[in-house]
Description:
Layout: E1 2-11, E2 14-24, E3 29-33, H1 40-47, E4 55-60, E5 63-64, H2 70-73, E6 78-81, H3 93-98, H4 113-118, H5 120-124, H6 135-148, E7 153-157, H7 165-181, E8 185-189, H8 193-199, E9 202-207, E10 210-216, H9 222-228
Parallel strand pairs: 3-8, 3-9, 6-7, 7-8
Antiparallel strand pairs: 1-2, 1-4, 4-5, 9-10
Amino acid sequence: xxxxxxxxxxxxxxxxxxxxxxxxxEGECTVLMGRNGVGKTTLLQCIMGLLPIKSGSLTYAGxxxxxxxxxxxxxxxxxxxxxxxxxxxxxxVEENLLIGLPARRDGLRKIPDFIFELxxxxxxxxxxxxxxxxxxxxQQLAIGRALVTDPRLLILDEPTEGIQPNIVADIGSIVxxxxxxxxxxxxxxxxxxxxxxxxxxxxxxxxxxxxVAKGAMPDLNEDLIHQYLTx
Length: 231
């Protein structure tokens, strides 16, 4: 569904992504892992058009994304949950969710019922300001806002960061359900190895802006973990 080939990106004179190649197969959950600062979030921002690329290609469902503006990418069916959630703190939960509706391709103008089936707490807090929610509730709101757009590909940037363990478990169950029961393709950046093993089908390891290893999740062995994930 998403194919990245020979991608290069720069911050000023600093070369941050080096000839990066990655396939995200349709219907699977792919996890992108690596130590802090290796370029994982930079890659996601390139996919979403928030950062320019120098060379290479980003192909989503047959469309070359480099020719599509950032604001139109959600309309192609790409949902994005950024690191740090980035909800609108002064807007209500309901208003945060409604913001995603214009990106839908089917013209629906109400929040789909399944959002509240996945996240009952959001239904209970529709009138509460986003900034008044706990970190775990804000993460659920951020995922719900992305799902409102009716994506075919859901991109999650460290959804368990700073979240209490019981909510981490809930998010893991929801990601599995979205992927394995509802057929949503998922690209996940994650630092917690147990969470990644729980939800992902495939992995890609990054180091210093390069893809250094990839494969089926059972192939993520102790040697790779020690070399590229442990501090």
